Amino acid sequence: MQIYLPIAALSMNLFFLVGIGAAVGFLSGLFGVGGGFLLTPLLIFSGVPSSVAVSSVTGQVVAASTSGALSYWRRGGIDFHLVMYLVLSSLIGVFAGVGTFSALRAAGQLDLVISLGYLIFLGAVGSLMMNEAIRALLKRRAGIVVRERLPSQHTWMHGLPLRIRFKKSKLYISVLPVLAIGVGIGFVGALLGIGGGFILVPALVYLLRVPGNVVVGTTLLQVVAMMAATTILQAVQSQSVDILLAFCLMVGGTIGAQFGASAGQYLRGDQLRFLLAALVLAVAIRFGVSLVLPPTDPFSMAILGPGGLL
Amino acid sequence: MKGVAQGLIGATLAVLLVSLAVLLAAVGNSRAEDLVSVVSNPNIAITSSFNGETLSIFGNVEPDDGAAAAKGPYDVIIVVTGPSVDRVARLKTNNLGLWMNTEQVEFNPFPTYFQVLASNPLDKITDQATLEANRILPEVQARISAVPQSLHVERFGSELVRLMTARGFFGINELAVRFLSPTAYAGQLTLPGDISNGLFITQTYLFKDGKLLAKRGDSFAVNKTGFERFLFTSSREYPLFYGITCVALALGTGWLGGVIFRR
């Protein structure tokens, strides 16, 4: 059944859209990530103009993270104080990211930067996760009991000026690395159309030493707030948010996520991390290959200006 | 669906006949031949199930008042031009192992749609100079709309036309116009599903023995209707409200999913 998408100005199969939403939702439920890093490339490869794909997935990520954020809220697993600092600083990054997005598109370098960005971020995060997961799997096989506990000592970042107490996270640290992480995640998220949860979780854990019981809930709420702001900003500035496309993805994603979450209960944490790392690395390699291999057609075309969606 | 389409064509033919009668009564100009034509659907509505549409352009060669009855054989070329935008063609080259866009040429204003429908191969209808002078060839569109002082305009222009042709927006169909009688013709046009919205111009050229005898311009509009139009207009006129609605929808869907599945 074909459905006409008014902003993307093309018709697509409704079941295909709900289907890829559900498939990515399944994976996001399984691994506890937003799934934007899979959905945006899938849409671009399916022929959706890249600016519409990036902006509409932003809306889908809000929906995908909402139910998780709500359930963590009920359990008290969110550090609202930390979220406030992260969200406010990420808005600066979002503004810069949306501006850079438009400038790169006009210069014809948007696809290059998106590919490089995916290659670098997914490659780095994927390698780190893969390394950690393989070591955990090997230790388990060797019969060593792994104690999941992080060293509690402070790094040099915590000693910077402007220290603030985050009660829920039991931290008394400088606000500067928090703001830096917020700006960075906002910039990358707006530019690449990803929620950035898979970057934010390791950053909060390894750089700020946020305890495990609040890190996921805090990340989810930060993603909801930041992506909601990005959706509104994209709707106003680039006018490329397709509400019908986003809604189809949301419906599929919400349903798929429930099945993914149930399936996730049958796998161990280190196995899940290994599979997620493999997935992230596969997407990174896919983008890397597209940069290095000669393109099938060296020529391409695009529309310039505010109505330009290609 | 087919019955409806035939009914539409029937009704259109009736309208055509009436307009022919009216036009026959009217006094023409000093040329020996004149053209009358009509587009089967002057207002194409894009609805939620829109996936392209087929249009017909009906026309007739009329003898001018006082002249002898129109005699064939005639040839007809119909050029359908869509709304224009600012478009660029880009070339990727390999730099230090990475493929990236390094050169671009801007074409402004460049049509989003350009189809040439003809009753015979173009080179049999008339000569190249006449085709170029009347802007009938897609390559001519690229040449006249290229931003001045760009290098390699010819090369980028023909590549842009190739890309547009591959997407079904540009093309030359030399069998699309059929003569129903020595003077009456019908042109068939298939619009793709991802067509631009706006006003489309159909310019009809009448040839005989390689000479241009008459021209006629018609138009049709492609517009979103109903819910799609409402969504599109809202996104352009009330972008802030549209964005907030989108976020509210996302929050609602996420919340509802959590409630239904008791996550």
Give structural notes.
The complex is a heterodimer of chains A (310) and B (263). Chain A has 310 residues and is mostly helical. Chain A has helices at residues 14-31, 36-45, 50-74, 80-107, 110-142, 175-192, 197-207, 212-237, 243-264, 269-292, and strands at 2-5, 10-13, 163-166, 171-174, 299-303. In chain A, a hairpin with a 4-residue loop joins strand 3 and strand 4 (171-174). Chain B is α+β, with helices and mostly antiparallel strands and 263 residues long. Helices cover 35% and strands 38% of the residues of chain B. Chain B is built from seven helices and twelve strands. Chain B has helices at residues 2-25, 122-125, 128-133, 138-145, 153-166, 226-237, 239-261, and strands at residues 33-39, 43-46, 53-63, 75-81, 84-95, 98-111, 114-118, 170-173, 177-179, 184-191, 198-208, 211-224. In chain B, the strands form three sheets. Chain B has a six-stranded mixed beta sheet with strand order 2-12-11-4-7-8. In chain B, strand 11 (198-208) and strand 12 form a beta hairpin. The longest helix of chain B is centred in the N-terminal third of the chain and has 24 residues, at 2-25. Chain B is flat and about 80 Å long. The two termini of chain B are 46 Å apart. Mean pLDDT of chain B is 83; it is low at 21-30. Classes of the chains: A mainly alpha (310), B alpha+beta (263).
Write the layout of secondary structure elements.
The complex is a heterodimer of chains A (310) and B (263).
Chain A: E1 2-5, E2 10-13, H1 14-31, H2 36-45, H3 50-74, H4 80-107, H5 110-142, E3 163-166, E4 171-174, H6 175-192, H7 197-207, H8 212-237, H9 243-264, H10 269-292, E5 299-303
Antiparallel strand pairs in A: 1-2, 3-4
Helix pairs in contact in A: 1-9, 2-3, 3-8, 3-9, 4-6, 4-8, 5-10, 7-8
Chain B: H1 2-25, E1 33-39, E2 43-46, E3 53-63, E4 75-81, E5 84-95, E6 98-111, E7 114-118, H2 122-125, H3 128-133, H4 138-145, H5 153-166, E8 170-173, E9 177-179, E10 184-191, E11 198-208, E12 211-224, H6 226-237, H7 239-261
Parallel strand pairs in B: 2-12, 7-8
Antiparallel strand pairs in B: 1-3, 3-10, 4-7, 4-11, 5-6, 9-10, 11-12
